[in-house]
Amino acid sequence: MQKKYSPDDLKVGMYVELPSGWFSHPFLKNNFVISSDKQIEQIVKSGFKEVVIDTSKGTYIFEEMSNKEIAEKKEDNTNVTQPESMEAKEIDSGELREAVHNEKLPPEKRSKAVYNYSLKIVNTIFENPTTDNIVEGKKNIYEVVDVILGNNDTSKYLLNITSHDFYTYTHSVNVGVFAIMLSKELLKGYDPNVMRELGAGFFLHDLGKVDIDPNIIKKPDKLTPQERLIIRSHPQKGYNLLEKTNQLSEECKIIVMQHHERENGKGYPNGLRGNEIHLYARIASIADVLDALTSRRPYKEPYNIFDALRIMKDEMIDHFHKDIFSQFVMLFTKNLKKT
Ligand SMILES: [Fe+2]
User: Fold this and answer.
1) CA 332 to centroid of ligand 1, rounded, Å
2) Distance 288 CA to ligand 1 centre (A)
3) What are the extents of the domains in the chain?
4) What's the fold here for domain 85-335?
5) Contact between 180 and 198 (Cβ < 8 Å)
6) What is the 250 CA–ligand 1 centroid distance (Å)?
7) For residue range 302-320, what is the model confidence (pLDDT) as tens digits?
8) Which segments within the chain are labelled E, that is strand?
């Protein structure tokens, strides 16, 4: 049931539908479950007189709800776990693309457009990884990489808006953004064409998950040894998929294949060590772990970025190439708003 609410009366757990387009507020989507008081504050600051609350969704329990409504809410709770990209998908592709290329747009709005556009690209490829979709998606990723390389203000904002809901699509885009930004720092005098290809590899690093049972990927409990083996097959599966479509460079496929290898030889699938791991895969692995730590999972709250970087340094430093990791930390200390 939809009800109008004053922003001052909102509560954490409510499913809110903001009244106007995604440009008029700081959120990535118009409809979402309120997850913190800070979000309520941001909605109040956006100046809306009233917003719509869908009482059948979200996690907030409305006292006046009938048993029937509560039962409906339980069924609808699956909507809460819909990938954010499903929301991004509802935004008109033309409007988004135009915003991505609009140099007059303030960087905070342009970065939102870039982020949502990226979600759409990854969503399309992951839902149907045909050669045609990969060819088209690759071209679109090139556009995103060009904006990240060409516009420092927009890319700085991008680091600030990466979503912390953990879904394969948002994870892919976050890792893509972090890894392209890190590559930009590390590969001074880079060839833009190489960077575009790398961007495609970073965005698609988890493509192999399309061939894995989603129930295993989403399982909140501890994996069985058999399930762990299945999950650990995703780098090889992704590599095979890209090999079959024959559309991406070897370096790009190496990112997909090696992003879970670790400097100490304890990664997978091949237990490579140190220099056996390609530079681009070392970059991807650092970005991948940061996003895993800063994302919300069914079994854990997200760490903030600086706490996550500290954990990586104190507890996992032998997983990463030390100099590349230091550059990564600097990227955030230089660009991230501390809240
Ligand atoms: Fe992965």
Assistant:
1) 22
2) 7
3) 2-80, 85-335
4) Hypothetical protein af1432 (1.10.3210)
5) yes
6) 18
7) 888 999 999 999 999 999 9
8) 2-5, 15-17, 31-33, 51-54
